[in-house]
Amino acid sequence: MCTGYIFKMACGHEQVGFHERCYHECKRPEGKVRSIEDACTACRPNHTITEICRHYDDLLDEQTTLYSRALRLDDHAKAREYYSNIVNLRVGRKYKINEINKDFEMDVDKPEKPTED
């Protein structure tokens, strides 16, 4: 049996580490399972927000290119459509980011202030 550790994160994911590997190359090590009141990197807001921004930036680049092309071709109806898409994407990105920030609120115990006797 492989030996190691398993940390159960507050987000529901697990972080697994191995101290020693056996010849079976187990997927999960034998060892203590501990809980951590923290989220994994993929669930942290800054990582999630970065992924959201990348996704929306790609969509915005595409729509901006189409908008520019429509303006060069004097296709005002298409230009209005693409401009509307750009505005909606910007609003959608802000909404998604705000949702992530609202959803990711973890209780953190603050140390008590020492009392003076």
What descriptive keywords fit this protein?
3 strands; elongated; 117 residues; alpha+beta; 48% helix; three-stranded mixed sheet; 2 helices
Overall spatial form: elongated
Radius of gyration: 24 Å
Taking pLDDT < 50 over at least 5 consecutive residues as the criterion, the unreliable ranges are 106-111
Largest sheet: 3 strands, mixed
Q: Within the largest sheet, what's the order of strands?
A: 2-1-3
Number of strands: 3
Structural class by secondary-structure content: alpha+beta
Output the helix-strand order.
EEEHH
* Tally of DSSP helical segments: 2
Mean pLDDT: 83
Helix percent reads 40-55%
Q: What fraction of residues sit in β-strands?
A: 15-25%
Span between N and C termini?
A: 54 Å
Describe the structure.
With 117 residues, the protein is an alpha+beta fold. Helix content is 48%, strand content 15%. The chain is built from two helices and three strands. The chain has helices spanning 45-72, 76-103; strands at 3-9, 14-20, 33-36. It has a three-stranded mixed beta sheet with strand order 2-1-3, with no helix packed on it. Helix 1 packs antiparallel against helix 2 (76-103). The chain is elongated and about 70 Å long. It starts with a strand and ends in a 14-residue tail after the last helix. 3% of the residues are buried.
